[in-house]
Specification:
alpha/beta, 7-stranded parallel sheet, 9 helices, about 45% helix
């Protein structure tokens, strides 16, 4: 159990973030700044959870989080950068703002500056898609690959006072898929329960693990795909067919 910590958690209003918040709020003496674009939706917690609205896709939003945290806490013991969102689509357009906001939301951090030599723990939700791209998620895959490279470099650069834990969940049964597209679509395989993901991440932070991979099937699949590349080819083909069926559905709907 994580106890007596000051914590900032982004993306705290739903999914993995909300389930993580529930666990952290049970810790004795924890004080948590629960951040979301719509933090007013975070209900049912005591005074140890402080709700805060912020859009982390902007510099102003990120700065406001640290300003609020520094107003509340002497130091942020744990900063869990969990917020992120996807698009599910065929990437066949030019929209610089749409691309930019995806990368800003999923890769911005200034925790090291805040610590200024003091001990702290930075946590990230990188995602399994940061290790293997998926059809229909081109921008999301790119942003997570960027975050994967970012965390690799930070591990080499970071001072000894800062721990780093990264989470690699597969698709998780949350509002993620409702945000990805207003039209319903087939979810990728496999899909995990957010409670399982959150529990393993909190345990990983508690133990100071460098990485947390909550889906054993994905870990096994990576090994098999490394030995037998055709396994990945087959998997990608199955997932690409889902995207093609989705695109056909949109085309038919648009033609009516």
């Amino acid at each position: 159990m994580i106890d007596n910590k000051t914590i900032v958690l982004t993306g705290a209003s739903s999914g993995i973030g909300l389930e993580t918040l529930k666990l952290l709020a049970q810790g004795k003496g924890n004080r948590i700044l629960a951040v979301s674009r719509h933090a007013t939706g975070i209900m049912g917690f005591g005074d140890n959870v402080i709700r805060f609205d912020a859009d982390i896709s902007t510099k102003e939003g990120v700065d406001s989080i640290f300003a609020k945290a520094e107003e509340l806490f002497d130091k942020i013991d744990i900063f869990y950068a969990n917020a992120g969102f996807p698009y599910y689509e065929t990437f066949n357009y030019v929209d610089w703002d749409r691309v930019d906001i995806m990368f800003q939301t999923n890769t911005v951090a200034k925790y090291r500056e805040h610590l200024n030599g003091r001990d702290g723990h930075l946590a990230y939700t990188v995602s399994a898609i940061g290790q293997m791209a998926m059809p229909g998620y081109a921008l999301y895959s790119a942003s997570k690959f960027g975050l994967q490279g970012f965390q690799q470099a930070i591990r080499l650069e970071k001072p000894a006072n800062m721990k780093l834990t990264c989470l690699y969940p597969v698709a998780t049964n949350t509002n993620f898929f409702k945000v990805a597209n207003s039209e319903t679509f087939e979810k990728p395989f496999p899909v995990q329960d957010p409670k399982v993901v959150a529990r393993k991440m909190v345990k990983g932070i508690e133990k100071g693990k460098k990485t947390v991979s909550p889906c054993g099937l994905f870990a096994l699949a990576k090994v098999l795909m490394g030995i037998f590349p055709f396994v990945r080819t087959i998997y990608w083909k199955l997932e690409t067919n889902k995207l093609l069926r989705f695109q056909k559905k949109l085309d038919q709907k648009g033609g009516k």
